Amino acid sequence: MDLILRPLGLVLAAGTLMSVNPAPQQQYSPELLAMLDPTAGMRSLCGGTSGSSMRSLLSASAAVVGQTDVTAPPLYDGLGKVHFAITK
């Protein structure tokens, strides 16, 4: 009996699933699609028309760094000796 009911149940389930209509297609506005565009944010990083592009920020920071006087960090004596042996 189980040999007949199991395949019959699978056939009925498959028939039921095949008779179901898909959901209607959604229509999205161009404004919403523009907000979901992943390339829009990347375009402004390298040279967008806005003032906050990555190129303008890097050039401004290079100008600031170029004008400062950088001194060497101090070296301290008596902090110990570190030795890492190199082995194969």
Structure classification: mainly alpha
Following the backbone from N to C, one meets helices and strands in this order, namely HHHH
Question: How many strands, what sense, and barrel or not for the largest sheet?
Answer: none
In one word, what is the shape?
Answer: elongated
Helical amount: 40-55%
Uncertain runs with pLDDT below 50, 5 residues or more? none
Give me the count of strands: 0
Distance between the termini: 70 Å
Rg over CA atoms, rounded to whole Å, is 33 Å
Number of helices: 4
Description:
With 88 residues, the protein is an all-alpha fold. The chain is built from 4 helices and no strands. The protein has helices at 2-18, 30-35, 39-47, 54-67. The longest helix has 17 residues, at 2-18.
Q: What's the layout of helices and strands?
A:
Elements: H1 2-18, H2 30-35, H3 39-47, H4 54-67
Task: List the main descriptive attributes of the protein structure presented here.
elongated; 88 residues; 0% strand
Q: What is this entry, summarized?
A:
By secondary structure, the chain is mainly alpha-helical. Helix content is 52%, strand content 0%. The longest helix has 17 residues, at 2-18.
